[in-house]
Amino acid sequence: MSKLKVAVSGVGSLGQHHARIAAASEQADLVAVVDVSEARGREIAEKFGTRWVADLAQVLPEVDAVQVAAPTGFHHGIGVQVLQAGKHILMEKPLAASLSEGEALLAALEQARAAHPGLIAAVGHLERFNPAVQALRAKGFKPRFAEATRVSPFPMRSLEVDVVMDVMIHDLDLLLALVGRPVVDVEAFGVPVLTKYADVVNARLKFEGGGFATVTASRVARKKERTLRAFGENAYASLDFAAQKLELLNLVQGPEGPQVLPEVVDITEGEPLKLELEAFYAACLQGSGDTVPWAEAFQAMRVADQVQRSVARSLEEALKG
What we know:
Layout: E1 4-9, H1 15-24, E2 28-34, H2 38-47, E3 51-53, E4 65-68, H3 75-84, E5 88-92, H4 99-115, E6 121-124, H5 131-138, E7 145-151, H6 163-179, E8 183-191, E9 200-207, E10 212-218, E11 225-232, E12 235-240, E13 245-254, E14 257-264, H7 272-286, H8 294-320
Helix pairs in contact: 3-4, 4-8, 6-8
């Protein structure tokens, strides 16, 4: 089987893992890594047996696909460049730095697909590939109410965006995928702590049809916690993202009447980023597959924008008080 020729654009803290997985994949051939830092680019290229280039244009004619792990502010420019070259693309989350840039990327994708049918454009919402999440979705679980918590110590990276776009967007995308209906109302509160942006945010979401969720994200905590508690029809789910553990409580009809029984779901652990990238490679090689489309990632951006606007209003009101 021929391999997918790929380049990784941006080899910082996350991009280095894109390179690692591409270099080891049986489906991909890592042609080059791209980074503005020669020292960093050469370091990662040497580590994974490929070459470094400073400009993506140097390697685009040689590859079939590009994995973009550059800072969010560069996503629009790189995305348009890759699409105009007719190459498949996986963009790390968020899709773009703003809704306007996201809309421009969607328009560019539509134009590119007119010239190159079958072009794959995915976004790196890796929690969808967490084995515990996949197990929950396989059961057809639809939350009516959910509580998502994602907190961690200050990362000293992604300082160009707030905690909503950096952290909370994982859970916003996941809730949209699980509930399967759009968000119709948002109320959020947050404060900047260590940066000029909101570092701690709590949001309450209302979905079309009456579902609700509360989402908390913080990058100012003593330890990591990434959990989801969700309540559906006759069932309760407790999910630990880091431990890849899923526990369920199900209402079942027993011989003596209704019973609530626990269920520990058997999960085969795996690295979500590897599972995500292997799915992307397969989709590119086969013409379709299990990826997160740009259009779905843009919906998560829309909700994130609503959260950000609500946080800004709450801060403004607090200052007035």
